[in-house]
Design a protein that fits this description.
The chain is mainly α and 360 residues long. It has a domain of 202 residues. It is built from 12 helices and no strands. The longest helix is centred in the first third of the chain and has 41 residues. It is globular, with a radius of gyration of 24 Å. The N and C termini lie far apart (67 Å).
């Protein structure tokens, strides 16, 4: 116990010294984040709002990185500053850039929204008083849970990335249902956007040039050269996520972004020919089933659900510890497949006005 106290005290001194050195950077980033948040709400041009929101996500990425949460920063960069911004651009391009002016009720709605935001802020400030101090090493979580993860992760799972071992092993149930939520949310978005009848009541014009790509030789050449490297990097992020920052969520988004790049630079029809609506929905189901299937395989072998150590019975030349590492790799692959399929489906539905493969 004295050794643990010395370690905690040394860690606390190091964090305090680091905080004294970079608090100016923290304050600057936080100020810019608040400015971007207000600008996103107040600006009238929706395209400008999407650009500012992308800058907001990038600043959040910097803040997470500075705090040492590299995996969270990676997710924010790929999802928030990356694919989400592209989806906003596509939605604005297919609708309108300007917010319609409403003659009455606008000030009332703003006042109601402001009051609700202020009340929620007060509630959060009051609740924050009951939380332990930031980076306090003497909280129950820091004294009991975190030291075990830090000291035993490599011994238990043979995975050096603590974040991956926590997400995919120690609390694998939570991550499995997060994957199911992403898939369900994607299906809900597709159900809202999809237009099955040719003569429906949706009075939208035909898809703009964004669905037909840009007939520029330089753009298409650069995109064609970049896509293989992007996909290779995505596979590396998935396969190496338990050894370095990354994993299934980030790798799946990057894989989806590579197909979106081709759709923007060439033609949506080319992507639909390779990734049809049926294929994307099927891949989404397969991704979730791969995750759950590994858990059920553990049950069939006589262990608990998602207890990967039992997989050593069916994996050749693998002990129980290495089997946990391989099990995490399997579920990361399932997550990547599901996320990639949903990202592609949402983009193609947006740029085709929900007509997808019929009238694109």
């Amino acid at each position: 116990m004295p050794d643990m106290s010395l370690t905690l005290n040394h860690g606390l001194k190091t964090r305090r010294k680091k905080a004294e050195m970079i608090w100016q950077l923290d304050l600057s980033i936080l100020t810019l984040i608040v400015i971007c948040a207000f600008a996103t709400i107040m600006v009238k041009d929706l395209l400008s709002a999407a650009i500012i929101f992308g800058a907001y996500s990038f600043l959040m990425c910097l803040l997470w990185t500075e705090m040492g949460a590299v995996d969270v920063a990676f997710t924010e960069a790929s999802v928030g500053a990356g694919v989400s911004t592209v989806l906003f651009f596509a939605a604005v391009h297919q609708t309108t850039r300007r917010v319609g002016f409403r003659k009455s009720g606008r000030m009332l709605s703003k006042a109601v929204g402001l009051i609700a935001a202020l009340l929620m802020g007060v509630v959060l400030i009051i609740a924050q008083a009951d939380f332990p101090g930031f980076a306090n090493p003497f909280t129950p979580a820091s004294l009991h849970l975190s030291p075990y993860y830090i000291t035993q992760t490599l011994h238990d799972t043979n995975v050096p990335n603590i974040v991956t071992s926590v997400l995919a092993d120690y609390r694998g149930f939570d991550t499995m249902f997060e994957t199911a939520v992403i898939f369900t949310a994607g299906l809900a978005v597709i159900a809202i956007l999809r237009r099955y009848k040719k003569d429906d009541r949706c009075d939208l014009p035909e898809p703009y040039i964004i669905s037909e790509g840009y007939p520029d030789t330089i753009i298409r050449f650069v995109a064609r050269q970049l896509v293989p490297f992007i996909q290779l990097f995505a596979l590396y992020v998935v396969a190496h996520g338990h050894h370095s920052p990354g994993g299934g969520f980030q790798g799946g988004v990057i894989l989806g972004a590579s197909f979106i790049l081709l759709a923007i630079s060439y033609d949506s029809r080319m992507i639909i020919g390779r990734m049809s609506e049926r294929s994307n929905i099927l891949l989404g189901n397969i991704g979730v089933l791969v995750y759950a299937g590994i858990g059920f395989l553990c049950l069939l072998l006589g262990a608990n659900f998602l207890d990967y150590s039992i997989l050593s019975k069916v994996l050749p030349a693998t002990d129980k510890i290495m089997a946990r590492s391989h099990g995490m790799l399997g579920i990361e692959i399932g997550v990547a497949i599901a996320v990639m399929a949903i990202v592609i489906s949402i983009y193609l539905n947006i740029v085709s006005h929900g007509k997808y493969d019929k009238d694109v």
